[in-house]
Amino acid sequence: MSILTGSRARKRYGTVAVLGAAALILAGCSGDTGSTESAAPDPAEREDLTLSIGTVLPQTGALSYLGPPEEAGVGLATAEINEAAKGITVEVEYGDSGDPDNKAYETTVPRLLGSDVQALIGAASSGVTKLFLDQAVGAGVITFSPANTSPDFTTWDDDGLYWRTAPSDLLQGEVLGNLIAEDGAASLGIIYLNDAYGTGLEAVVNETFTASGGEVVASESYNAGDTNFSAQVSSILAQNPDAIAVIGFEETSTIVPSFVNSGFDGSNFYFVDGNISQWGTDMSVSIEGSKGTQPGPVLADDFQDRLKAQWLEQGDGAELVDFNYAAESYDAVVLLALASLAANSSDPAEIAGKLQEVSGGSGDGEKCDTFEACADIILDGNAADYDGYSGGVAFDDAGDPTEATIGVFQYGADNMHTRID
User: Fold this and answer.
1) Does 189 share its domain with 160?
2) Is the confidence at residue 5, as pLDDT, over 80?
3) Any idea what the CATH number is for the domain that residue 194 is in?
4) What pLDDT is stored for residue 296 in this prediction?
5) What is the pLDDT of residues 215-226, one digit of tens each?
6) Are 381 and 126 in contact (CB under 8 A)?
7) Taking residues 237-241, what's their average pLDDT?
């Protein structure tokens, strides 16, 4: 199931794939990302740079459990960049994205744009980003998401100002579909959220599982805000599937008990990044044995410990339990800072013009895996190729990562998951 590509100082595990290969062709591009062939400025000509970023991450709404790890990742990167003292200072203003229902982004985004930020970090939800991306592009500000996975962004008309460290759902959907088949399921039921995220993943999981020889016997959608899923549950269970894929968010804690209480085996569910949460007692039935997928490599060295310490200082004093998209959020800030250094500029368009280069997507540059090491390479007049905690990244012309890792997780008796691949 694994295709290994690239190299990295830190050890990575799981399913690693190259996006853009024959099986996963991502058509078109989102706009001109600018030239990476510019001469490095003379050290004497360098400016002291300030990079102002604003976060549009979920403090409330269906994805609020992703807010702490993502904000911790942003905060940790900011602290470590500033501590390195390499001629750039990062300033952060935190804001709530909410979700399409509570519409917190409608207040947050104008406030941040009015503060003259150069970049927005967010949103986590593809559906939310779609609602403000054109506004940010119109303002000439970079939007850099650590968690957007909708394939629609690949061809978005964004003037080269949209980037993401999370891979497209084309990859995660393929990995999940193959996982279900490899686990021996011959028939599959799918219940999915009817939005850009859910429909995109459902299509790829359905196609992949069918191509493997399995049969999708039922696929039922629901809408954001729904609280009763009895019709979808009855329709899927009537087809007696071997396994059920649940593609959604926090409503999963209502959906899954509805199936189990109707007689379905709680060990035969499959989840995705939107609901592969550490459910614990928030899940009222046992899901021991069920599995799910989540983009991102194993977080090696002491990264999790540093995130926990950062969140105790930055958050409300609660312990950081989930680490979903923390690495992608950390790397988003580091890549923006490195691109600003490489451009010797705080102008968003000029920063965007260097993001592909510092990620290694241009094919040039010296490998490095910390902000400090990469900054030294840039300050010496050379090109840096950052491999971060989220992987090699290597942006293509559309601002999509061309290298990504999808981890496989399995739930234990306490409804908490551990990584198994």
Assistant:
1) no
2) no
3) 3.40.50.2300
4) 84
5) 999 999 999 889
6) no
7) 98
Residues 63, 87, single domain; the answer is yes
Burial of 357 (0-12, 13-18, 19+ CB in 10 A): buried
pLDDT confidence of 42, banded at 50, 70, 90? low
CA distance 357 to 353: 8
- Do 141 and 266 fall into the same domain? no
Q: What is the pTM of this model?
A: 0.82
Same domain, 354 and 249: no
pLDDT-based confidence at residue 9 (cuts at 50, 70, 90)? very low
Q: What is the mean pLDDT of the chain?
A: 89
Q: Across-strand partners of 244?
A: 189, 269
- Residue 42 phi/psi, 5-degree rounding, is -60, 140
Identify the domain containing residue 259 by its residue range: 170-294+407-419
Together in a domain, 41 and 103: yes
Q: Domain total for the chain?
A: 2
What torsion do the CA atoms of 165, 168, 171, 175 make, to the nearest 10 degrees? 90
Cis previous bond, 349, omega within 30 = no
